[in-house]
Amino acid sequence: MNSRTYTIKGLPISWKRAGINKKYGRYFDAQSFEKERVRLELVTQQPILIAKGPISISYTFYLPIPTSLSTYKKNKLPATPHFIAPDIDNLYKFYSDAFEGFLYTNDCQIAQLAVYKVYDNNPRTELTIESMKDKG
Question: What is the full DSSP assignment across 33-76?
Fold first, then answer.
């Protein structure tokens, strides 16, 4: 399988810990609506499910440019790395969880991972996924 690239428009979303309902003692996912929006956008791009075997994923999170950056620095974008909140691991965790069952059966299939955060005028998330079965 050749690699496939998908783009999710909008501000990248960071993973948040599941909450607990004290009355019933159950956990709930406070981000279920955000995950559904991301999945719906992915479905419009006709994703291919990789059911078995190791996969490689590369994420690039394009985050908005803070108003504090000078015009000089803005002209150098999007090559400028993003180094403030949200944390890169929380960004990856959210999308890894949201795409389970749509791009891969289980996130334990991810054998190789590359994750980048950069500034850009157009906030979005881009990911490239590839099966590693054919790579010997």
Answer: HHHHHHHHHHHTT----B-SS-EEEEEEEEEPPPTTS-HHHHHT
Please report the pLDDT score of residue 70 as a whole number.
Answer: 59
- Collapsing DSSP to helix, strand or coil, 96 comes out as helix
Number of domains, the chain? 1
| Predicted confidence band of residue 135 (pLDDT cuts 50, 70, 90) | low
Give the range of the structural domain holding residue 89, as residue numbers without chain letter.
Answer: 4-135
Are 40 and 112 a contacting pair, CB within 8 Å? Answer: no
Of all residues in the chain, the percent with pLDDT exceeding 70 is 79
How many residues are given for the chain? 136
Judged against a pLDDT cut of 80, whether residue 46 lies above it is answered with yes
